[in-house]
Recover the amino acids of this structure.
């Protein structure tokens, strides 16, 4: 047994002494392709709405609330799915968010929000996480679709046009500062500045 | 016998008349069925409408679709609350809304005035289903004077 381990270790320590350069190069390349492809496929599989709503916490709470909003039902039929807003699209940030999401796996295993009541209790904390994430990245996930440059404020209502001109186009505020609770219901807002 | 026949005749013609001629909000839909509701009318941007009498809750001159008012949040107050009006330029909710039922003025909108759309509705350009002959007091007074 010890002899076997020692033999393997010797091969792993200096594979070029036992295998040809061609085998190692092509083998390494193929292994890399398989690993990388598998990793990305797994990553993309966790980045779909079907994956999100496979947990009842998401399916019964936030997904039901989304269905009634314009981001799910609208005239043109263009819609946003969970990761469009909740996962950064750019690779490094996406990986960072996925690492953070290990906390959510913990929550799903130990049932942190496995009833409606527990979910409502945590709702403010969870909402604050998303609001601060979007404030920090200047509402990047909103802007992936809603570009301020392409926004024709003359076609907006007078109130919206005025607000966007004063606060959005000057960069004084970012989308999430005003547009909270547009896709899900709000938590108790009495402690949130700007709300009563 | 003849009396009964006559009574039945009178009753049935009455029912027939009522069915055909009396206009109701329900229309001629039988009680066992649900009428097709009229299509929703989108918000009409017809400018700020003047109140018809001083006590009228002003109608809302903007769209309020998807503005939630519930236990957790009140979207109206994020513009119309006293502290928010400076930034939003919206009119402040009137002082009467701060008064509780004991007549005390409170620091914020009192619970009985919290649900804005109990009294305030968004403006729509509609033909009323029932006519009414309401005229406001100024029109009434000037027509009295003219007489």
């Amino acid at each position: 047994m010890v002899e076997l381990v020692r033999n393997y270790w010797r091969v792993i320590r200096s594979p070029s002494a036992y295998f040809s350069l061609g085998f190692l190069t092509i083998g390494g390349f193929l292994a890399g392709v398989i690993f990388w492809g598998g990793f990305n496929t797994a990553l993309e599989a966790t980045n779909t709405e079907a994956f999100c709503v496979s947990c009842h916490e998401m399916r019964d709470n936030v997904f039901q609330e989304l269905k009634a909003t314009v981001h799910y039902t609208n005239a043109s039929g263009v819609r946003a799915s969970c990761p469009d807003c909740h996962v950064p699209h750019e690779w490094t940030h996406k990986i960072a968010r996925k690492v953070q999401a290990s906390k959510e796996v913990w929550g799903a295993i130990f049932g942190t929000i496995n009833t409606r009541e527990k979910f409502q209790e945590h709702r403010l904390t969870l909402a604050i996480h998303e609001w601060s994430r979007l404030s920090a990245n200047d509402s990047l996930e909103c802007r992936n679709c809603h570009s301020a440059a392409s926004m024709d404020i003359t076609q907006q209502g007078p109130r919206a046009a005025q607000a966007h001109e004063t606060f959005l186009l000057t960069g004084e505020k970012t989308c999430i500062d005003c547009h909270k609770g547009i896709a899900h219901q709000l938590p108790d807002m009495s402690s949130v500045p700007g709300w009563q | 016998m003849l009396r009964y026949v006559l009574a039945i005749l009178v009753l049935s013609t009455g029912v027939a008349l009522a069915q055909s001629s009396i206009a109701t909000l329900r229309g001629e839909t039988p009680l066992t069925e649900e009428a097709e509701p009229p299509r929703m009318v989108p918000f009409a941007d017809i400018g700020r409408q003047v109140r018809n009498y001083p006590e009228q809750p002003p109608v809302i001159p903007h769209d309020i679709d998807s503005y939630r008012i519930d236990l957790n949040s009140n979207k109206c107050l994020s513009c119309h609350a006293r502290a928010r009006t400076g930034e939003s330029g919206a009119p402040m909710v009137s002082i009467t809304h701060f008064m509780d039922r004991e007549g005390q003025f409170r620091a914020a909108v009192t619970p009985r005035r919290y649900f804005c759309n109990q009294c305030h509705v968004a403006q729509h350009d509609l033909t009323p289903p029932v006519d009414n002959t309401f005229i406001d007091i100024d029109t009434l007074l000037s027509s009295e004077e003219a007489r």
About this structure: Chain B touches chain A at residues 45, 62-63, 66, 68, 70-75, 77-78, 81, 84, 88-89, 108-109 (CB under 8 Å). The helical segments of chain B are 2-21, 77-80, 85-88, 137-146. Residues 2-21 of chain B form the longest helix (20 residues). The domain at 55-126 of chain B is CATH 1.10.1130.10 (Flavocytochrome C3; Chain A, domain 2).
